[in-house]
């Protein structure tokens, strides 16, 4: 298994899969990621315990981790709609993917994507590499359980290692979950994107649904979707140009090209 979730670290996160979730159970395996020592895990018993993970030198050193402090945010709302029964939702997802113009040699990065979105990318695209970046270990575990060839990295988008770069397509599937200024996001992406790379910012249900999500999940939805003037101003300072922009109540998409 060639990913940040390696078979050599399957005993590092005991009992994570027992953490109750509203829609599915976590697969029974665990992870290697760049910042485990700063994470916290919900306890599965009243006993206090800590764990030391031994990881390969190439994956970095992980210190003592107090699992009783780990709390996983609820990201289930990203998969609240069923792509198999909601035709309008499926069409919007396909429109988002099509905007990336993925080719057989493309290296794709998906930031904070839903499981269904990743499923659809895998089903409809042939590519050289697919990396999924997410804050949720639970979401990444479910993705990794289904797709061994998909690389998964737990952490913040602006800190993604350059070893997988340059990326030809970046899907910012849920930008409002990123706790960074737009200039930070596009400054970081400019360093890891190829010339001509396409950045697709999207919301398949648009601003109307985003407002509801922000009210229901304020700990996850920490910002909004940028309007056209704001986005144009920010991206132009980071070697991107806007090639498409649609901002409707029920659909949002902005497509950028890296000019550097």
Structure notes:
By secondary structure, the protein is an alpha/beta fold. It has 6 helices and 9 strands. The strands form 2 sheets. Strands 5-4-3-6-7-9-8 form a 7-stranded mixed beta sheet, with helices on both faces. Strands 1-2 form a two-stranded antiparallel ribbon. The longest helix has 13 residues, at 87-99. The model is unreliable at 5-63 (pLDDT under 50).
**Could you say which overall geometry the principal axes of the C-alpha atoms support?**
globular
Low-confidence stretches: 5-63
Question: What fraction of residues sit in β-strands?
Answer: 15-25%
| Rg calc | 18 Å
Number of helices: 6
Major β-sheet strand ordering: 5-4-3-6-7-9-8
Question: Major β-sheet, in short?
Answer: 7 strands, mixed
Strand elements, count: 9
Terminal-residue CA separation: 34 Å
Q: What would the average pLDDT be, to the nearest integer?
A: 81
Category by helix and strand content = alpha/beta
The residue fraction in helices comes out at 10-25%
Instruction: Give the SSE order as H and E letters.
Output: EEHEHEHEEHEHHEE
Structural topology:
Elements (H helix, E strand, L loop, with lengths): L49 E3 L11 E3 L20 H13 L7 E5 L3 H10 L4 E6 L2 H10 L4 E4 L12 E6 L9 H11 E11 L2 H11 L11 H9 L3 E9 L2 E8 L2
Descriptive keywords:
single chain; alpha/beta; 7-stranded mixed sheet; 25% helix; globular
